Amino acid sequence: ADAFSIEGVTETGRQDHSVDLEVRQNLQSVLQAAVQYEITDIETRPLTLEEIFLAYYGKGQNGK
């Protein structure tokens, strides 16, 4: 359960044998932690412009 409790990494979902992570930093540490599991696939998805905008101007900025 704590395999990816790494600074800059948020678990956003888990189902059967899949784990969804949002990695904002420490990608190398995530990959090193993942090596111990039998990984068959890694998918990456870049952030959309809307997600970047909301992260920068939305919640998290002085509690707003």
Describe the fold and architecture.
It is a single chain. The protein is an alpha+beta fold and 64 residues long. The chain is 27% helix and 20% strand. The longest helix is centred in the last third of the chain and has 9 residues, at 49-57.
Order of helices and strands: EEHH
The mean pLDDT is 86
Radius of gyration: 14 Å
Question: Which term fits the overall shape?
Answer: elongated
Q: Please give the alpha-carbon distance between the first and last residues.
A: 31 Å
Number of helices: 2
What does this entry show, briefly?
It contains two helices and two strands. The chain is an alpha+beta fold.
List keywords for this structure.
elongated, two-stranded antiparallel sheet, 64 residues, alpha+beta, 27% helix, 20% strand
Topology readout:
Blueprint: E1 9-15, E2 18-23, H1 27-34, H2 49-57
Antiparallel strand pairs: 1-2
